Amino acid sequence: MHLEIITPDKKVFSGEVSSVSVPGTTGRFEMLNNHAPIISTLLNGKVKVKDKEGVKTFDVKGGVVENLNNKIIILAESV
User: Fold this and answer.
1) Can you say whether the dihedral through the CA atoms of 19, 69, 65, 15 is positive or negative?
2) Which of 5, 21, 39, 52 is deepest in the core (most CB within 10 A)?
3) C-beta separation of 5 from 58 below 8 A
4) CA gap 32, 76 in Å, rounded
5) Tens-place pLDDT, residues 19-75
6) SS3 track for 13-78
7) Whole-prediction pTM value?
8) What does the pLDDT read at residue 33?
9) What pairing do the DSSP bridges indicate for beta strands 71-76 and 2-6?
10) Per the CATH hierarchy, to which homologous superfamily does domain 2-76 belong?
């Protein structure tokens, strides 16, 4: 899967990942390869990203996540 984390100021992360866990407004959820299409708002919290180098964590301050065809875009207010 390809993930991009973007704020109004800059692109924070772009790369291939195996899973992404986000703080959705109705609870934390994780997206894996071939996840169903989804759009969700995000609360303040940690986005956990697993890639071939290990686990990375980003503190986001709200935003939106979209997953479509194994491409995930997180538009965060700030990171």
Assistant:
1) positive
2) 5
3) yes
4) 20
5) 999 999 999 999 999 999 999 999 999 999 999 999 999 999 999 999 999 999 999
6) EEEECCEEEEEECCEEEEEECCCCCEEEEECCEEEEEEECCEEEEEEECCEEEEEECCEEEEEECC
7) 0.93
8) 94
9) parallel
10) F0F1 ATP synthase delta/epsilon subunit, N-terminal (2.60.15.10)
